[in-house]
Amino acid sequence: GNSVTQMEGPVTLSEEAFLTINCTYTATGYPSLFWYVQYPGEGLQLLLKATKADDKGSNKGFEATYRKETTSFHLEKGSVQVSDSAVYFCALSDSGNTGKLIFGQGTTLQVKP
Amino acid sequence: DTEVTQTPKHLVMGMTNKKSLKCEQHMGHRAMYWYKQKAKKPPELMFVYSYEKLSINESVPSRFSPECPNSSLLNLHLHALQPEDSALYLCASSPDPLGEAREYFGPGTRLTVT
């Protein structure tokens, strides 16, 4: 079945460091891919998405490229801020079937001043 | 109005109580969802309503009873819960259950069962 694997956290970085959070997936067909962010005490927010191979999603300085050849959707940001501290979830949609979202386990990011 | 609202924000209930969680959206979305999220885990899908009809029930115990009175409202009725049901309950909506635009999540209700 479809699944998503994220790098284990927590990831601890200093402010202005470069961020990469790895995400790989297993899926039949051509799912859409998403990154969600959950700030402490809040619900999930859609951060960015990509719907087909080679698409790049971007938002708030974060980017991720849909790589079909490596089945990956790694999240990157060039310079993190303390306010980026949150839990990040990679997800894929079972489009055209049930439409369900399948989440990775989440990666906690802590950015220190 | 581009948000999903949930009430209450926090709820503490005993194992014999009956309570309800409420969710509302005014974006004209035709799919609404209930998720359960335990600490440090991803959300787990519980129910999906598509065009006000229950389309997915992920084998959720009957002590959780969803209801969709109209296209803007989603309720989750709780009865005889167990302490292990304590979690963050998230509501979400999307324009189309099989479309590419994905779910908008509410802030959640943090439920504690004593």
Description:
The complex is a heterodimer of chains A (113) and B (114). Chain A has 113 residues and is mostly beta strands. Chain A is 0% helix and 50% strand. Chain A contains no helices and 12 strands. Chain A has strands spanning 3-6, 11-14, 19-21, 23-26, 32-38, 44-50, 56-59, 62-65, 75-77, 86-93, 101-103, 107-112. In chain A, strands 2, 5, 6, 10, 11 and 12 form a 6-stranded mixed beta sheet that branches. Chain A has a 4-stranded antiparallel beta sheet with strand order 3-9-8-7, with no helix packed on it. In chain A, strands 1-4 form a two-stranded antiparallel ribbon. The termini of chain A are far apart. The model of chain B has no long low-confidence stretch (mean pLDDT 92). In chain B, the strands form 2 sheets. In chain B, strands 2, 4, 5, 6, 9, 10 and 11 form a 7-stranded mixed beta sheet that branches. In chain B, strands 1-3-8-7 form a 4-stranded antiparallel beta sheet, with no helix packed on it. Chain B is 0% helix and 56% strand. Chain B is mainly β and 114 residues long. Chain B contains no helices and 11 strands. The N and C termini of chain B lie far apart (36 Å). Chain A binds chain B through residues 32, 34, 36, 42-46, 49, 51, 87, 89, 93, 95-101, 103-106, 108, and chain B through 4, 6, 31, 40-43, 45, 48, 56, 88, 90, 92, 97-100, 102-108.
Name a few traits of the molecule:
heterodimer, A: mainly beta, 0% helix, B: 114 residues, mainly beta, seven-stranded mixed sheet, globular
Helix share of residues of chain B? under 10%
Mean pLDDT of chain A: 92
* Uncertain regions spanning at least 5 consecutive residues of chain B: none
Radius of gyration of chain A: 14 Å
SSE arrangement of chain B, N to C: EEEEEEEEEEE
Helix vs. strand class of chain A:
mainly beta
Low-confidence stretches of chain A: none
The largest inter-chain interface, given as chain pair and residues per side, is: A-B, 25 and 24 residues
Number of strands of chain A: 12
**Beta content of chain A:** over 45%
Beta-strand share of residues of chain B: over 45%
Shape of chain B: globular
Distance between the termini of chain B: 36 Å
Number of helices of chain B: 0
Quaternary arrangement of the chains shown? heterodimer
Radius of gyration of chain B: 13 Å
User: What class would the helix/strand composition of chain B place it in?
Assistant: mainly beta
* Whole-number mean pLDDT of chain B: 92
Relative helix content of chain A:
under 10%
State the major sheet of chain B: 7 strands, mixed
How many DSSP E strands of chain B? 11
